[in-house]
Amino acid sequence: MKRPIPWFRALAGALILLLLLEYAALTWFAPRYVLQMIRWIGGGEVTAETARLAFPFTTELGRLRLVTGPPAAALSIQRTILRPGWVSFPRKILWLRSVEVDRPLLRVTRTREGTVLWPSLTAFLPGGTGASASKRSGVPGSAWRVNVDRLNVTDGTIEFIDERVPGTFHAVFDHVSFEAGPLVLPLDGAQTSVAIRGEFIGHGGHAAPFYCSGWFDLAKQDVEAACQNEPLALAAFTPYYGQAPTVRVYSVKLHSTSQWTARANELTAKIQLELSDLHEGDLSFRGRTFIDVKQLAAGPDARLRGEIGLEGPLNRLSQWHAHFMPGDLAMQGLVSRLLERDIEVLGFWCWGQRVALSLVPASEQVMQDIVTKSKEIQDALEILSAASVSPEQSPLEFAPDVLAEPVVESPSAPSATQPGASEAPEPLPAPEAGPLGPSTAPAAPLVPAGS
Fold it and tell me: Helix, strand, coil proportions of the chain in percent (round to 5)?
């Protein structure tokens, strides 16, 4: 006669079986289901190589990347960690406590034809538009709303490659850290705080840290932000100086702070600029110098200061109005000489749009306010500058591992916006002899007053 199995042995066996099933679900079935859902929801444009789940539902994705489009417009993420809070199936709302993005890489290229190639960012977001949305039609995940309490991006890289200029311009925003929250995806409302820091690396390895902090509300079209970049050698943009007129910047460095405010889509911005290390530098046309910065900003503290003011609709750059005010006596003298020759407006290109910059003289009080405002912004961003980037790491040391394809010239695609640094400003007309050189006007003057 067999002895009956004690009840606790049966319970222990059931618990062990349950744990084995849970282990199999977390390590085998669930990761494969997650990878399949990513390809499905992404319309075949987004894939992940690995997925790992931890109790209760924390998900870690490895090598998440955009597989469509040319290598010249690429987007990939080495690691993504999703920490869920709760989910409502009837309301189709997913609440995430945090999303951690580690070592993302975004690559943007302007071809020789002038077309800017952007990766399809909407493929990574719920409720995207365009081709990715059409592929997701009928997919359950496409109609969901995602709330994210906190988004952290660490050690990111943004590459910009401009093949249109001689020799190709290659710039990198490296070691980018980004914090934001709360976020609602698709982005259609709610006030979100943001903080970003990183390092800009341009031509010849010239680099400088930058910082930004603020908040935005897309529903109300409100923005409040303050930014600064530490002194950056203008030689970082050398490929853009090879056209007539020729600009030789030598050791000149640019430091800027800015404050951006928008209410109901009406933008008001002030950008404080300071040129330092003015030991050498000139602007010449056909071999003849007509601005010599050594004489223009003479003295032990050779600096030039000024402020650019912007006003207009936040989402319509073509309707922005810009003006420039000098921030010191040396710059005031240059502006006065231009105004005396009826040169009241300078023209330049920004993001593919022609912007007219009006020249406005400033009082001593206004010039002092420009310096004071710059100092206030630097003090406000001091907490971000303390967590500065590490200059020892190579700016692109992990890029080949992330994308595995070389950058090649790509066919034309629908044009997008162009970066502001992609066009050199139009030449200044030559004032009289003195610090500004001989009076020889260039063949392509700036926009005259009233044009």
Answer: 25, 40, 35
Instruction: Kindly state the average pLDDT of the residues 240-255.
Output: 75
Q: Which of 130, 110, 108 is nearest to 118 (CA)?
A: 108
Helix (H, G, I), strand (E, B) or coil at 270: strand
Give the three-state DSSP class for 123: helix
pTM for the model stands at 0.73
Q: Find the length of the chain.
A: 451
Higher-pLDDT residue of 236, 246: 236
DSSP state of 26: I
Report whether 360 contacts 325 (CB < 8 A).
yes
CA distance 265 to 261: 9
What is the rounded average pLDDT of the residues 77-81?
Answer: 94
90 CA to centre of own chain: 37
* Residue 127 φ then ψ, to 5°: 70, 25
Distances, alpha carbon 274 to alpha carbons 160, 209, 233, 248, 357, in Å: 25, 16, 12, 17, 17
Q: Is 403 helix (H, G, I), strand (E, B) or coil?
A: helix
Residue 35 structure tokens = 């990878």
The tokens describing 128, both together, are 């995207």
Residue 262 scores a pLDDT above 90 = yes
Secondary structure, 3-state, 176-195: EEEEEECEEECCCCCCEEEE
Residue 212 contacts residue 249 (beta carbons within 8 Å): no
- Whether pLDDT at 178 is above 70: yes
Going by C-alpha positions, the residue among 65, 96, 66 that lies closest to residue 81 is: 96
- Is the distance from CB of 251 to CB of 280 less than 8 angstroms? yes
**Which amino acid, 79?**
R
- First-to-final CA distance of the chain: 109
